[in-house]
Fold:
Amino acid sequence: MADEVVLLDFWPSMFGMRVRIALAEKGIKYEYKEEDLRNKSPLLLEMSPIHKKIPVFIHNGKPVCESLIIVQYIDDVWKDKCPLLPTDPYQRAHSRFWADFVDKKVYEVSRKVWATNGEEKKAGKKEFIEIFKILEGELGDKPYYGGETFGFVDLSLIPFYSWFYAIETLGEFNLEAECPKIVAWAKRCLQKETVAKTLPDQKKVYEFVGQMRKRFGLE
Amino acid sequence: MADEVVLLDFWPSMFGMRVRIALAEKGIKYEYKDEDLRNKSPLLLEMNPIHKKIPVLIHNGKPVCESLIIVQYIDEVWKDRCPLLPIDPYQRAHSRFWADFVDKKVIEVLMKISTTKGEEKEAGKMEFFEIFKILEGELGDKPYFGGETFGFVDLSLIPYYSWFYAIETIGELNIEAECPKIVAWAKKCLQKETVAKTLPDQKKVYEYVEQMRKKFGNG
Structure:
């Protein structure tokens, strides 16, 4: 019996993009369902009753929630093709650590830039650059965080690239000038079809962020 | 060559306790080093330069940080005995989800109760019970979150039991009255030698919390 795979998602979500990239890397066919987050579907509320958030991955009727947990699940189930995590336990722990760092730091600090004004925004911009300099340090001279190949950490971070134009414009800074290695790495990832086809257009994300800011009374 | 295992830790840390329980479950010999968090050792700063936090597991000189990542590392390296995570990918994802829920929710609400007053503290208390009732719901009628055997989710949550007396006293609440299943589960876990030997005495934790509260002007 063929696998039934459904993804509940929201197009600008960096977390959803991680899952979309993982599914593309593994060549898994799935049904994509776009959620209206101001009017969540009964399916979403049933499948993610605890957090009520996207992305939710539904595999043969059973839900998996939280993007990094979903990606590891996908890697565990479809393990015969295109491994996303390394095989060595120490390298796996190292990958999990850096994906966790992205989770703990990058979304929050991005919000501090796009969802604020004035002094708060200025402080957010400083922190954003600091965090990306730490990420540059971890990348070092490697082509990818995974080493020679695109892996778990690359997948956790690359979706934020689609938000860079919005953050740079609102934050009034040039990320390429501050963190050239990060931008070079991102452009290398964008050469992969799975990433290029998944990430939404930066200008489209910028328009979306503008709408959110108006709604929050920031514009 | 025998494995060299060192744990940098701090005795009241729930996160450290998770690692200590995992090491005990696997029967791994290790050197325990208690850190003074007001005067962190050069070793800690070298081994965890990003977060500068405990616990840090150092295995043959190589550090692993973040408690749930450390526990998964231990489970993968010493995989021949006493598995902590389930083998089935869906069950693994389910375990990771609930351990992540514990990570996201419990420490924050504990801090709210310990460090605030008045309305904020009352809100914290309400939230505490909401969270633990959700956990009771997930436990259901199972002896452990892991089912018939103590597992990853049990291990992530049980260290908080050593803080219950402190929370009940400072928060003026009765956890057993509101969440009897959780307390019954905790007492079942305490029957395991690995847990009983790891968890510090509840009164000792209360004294520590009171010292911290006085230092930060909350007590």
